[in-house]
Amino acid sequence: MTADMIFELLQANETLIMVSSAVSVLTCAFFVYRTLLYRDPLADRLAGIAVRQRSLKADLVAPRSRRGKLEAIGLMRGLVQKLKLLKTTEAKKAALQLSQAGYRGKDALIIYFFLKLALPFVFGGLAVLFLYIVPVMPMASGSKALVAMSAVVLGAFLPNVLVKNATTKRQKAIRKGTPDALDLLVICAEAGQSLDAALKRVAKEIGSFTPEIAEELALTSVELGLLPDRKRALDNLVARANIPELKNVVNALAQTEKYGTPLAHSLRVLSAEYRQERFMKAEEKAARLPAIMTVPMIIFILPPLFIVLLGPAILNIIDLLIKM
């Protein structure tokens, strides 16, 4: 193919080139606008916390206004209680998993078991509807049966996957905010506050930045004042968070409660250790970047580079061969 033929082909597809150029320009302008647009993350978090507070207040003040939801929860509870799912050993394990994911409502366990029961039938029914009754695409009978079984399995395991993903996200946020919370605890301890007051104060101060760890600390401060055994409240914090960083913090707090050792020094050492660990993880990610960027460079950068550098030479060679 000579250069004249390529030019004629480009002239024939002039409209397509103009549309593609316009789309490319609009896309670049949109990404530049999104890059220059400044959004305050603190304002978004404060707005989210305010919405959550209003929803909680509405639940407490006017519970009768949500009669439809209460009736739905009542139907779910009736089905779950008839099957006696709340009395099994799986219920305790599921309650702990939901607590670690941040779902601590009184009806969270009932909704979880109801979804595990209902979703396989819902997904299976939708698969049968779109494969056999109203076929969306032609498929072999064996493939249809395999897709229907896959839909049932997906419905059975979807609640577990969602809870696990929420738990991982929550643990990551708690791990990220632990050093800041420890620094504030050190300040409160050096100011002479008790453990209950220090946890409550830290939860109030850090709530706008890391609401997950603020919720855990606030709940622990409440349990320290209500439970007869203070160690049990700290153990509940470890069980809910399920991360080694908070386990070490709880061990330090337990030693302070039992032996009267200085709390501020232990927390300061743990905070410095966790910050150093987070810095080392960031360095590890930065060290992996060259290896990670190798494949995208080979796939997306080198071929266009070769085309730009070698394309004119190849076209000239083709023209010379044609003339010969």
Q: Terminal Cα separation, in Å?
A: 15 Å
Alpha plus pi helix count: 12
Instruction: Summarize the biggest pleated sheet.
Output: none
What is the strand content? under 5%
Description:
- It is a single chain.
- The protein has 324 residues and is mainly α.
- Among the domains are: 66-172, no CATH class; 174-281.
- Helix content is 85%, strand content 0%.
- It has 12 helices and no strands.
- Helix 9 (211-226) packs antiparallel against helix 10 (230-241).
- It is flat, with a radius of gyration of 30 Å.
- The relative contact order is 0.06.
- The model is unreliable at 60-68 (pLDDT under 50).
List keywords for this structure.
85% helix; mainly alpha
Q: Briefly, what is this?
A:
By secondary structure, the protein is mainly α. Helix content is 85%, strand content 0%. The protein has helices at residues 3-12, 14-36, 41-61, 67-82, 89-101, 108-133, 141-190, 195-206, 211-226, 230-241, 244-259, 263-323.
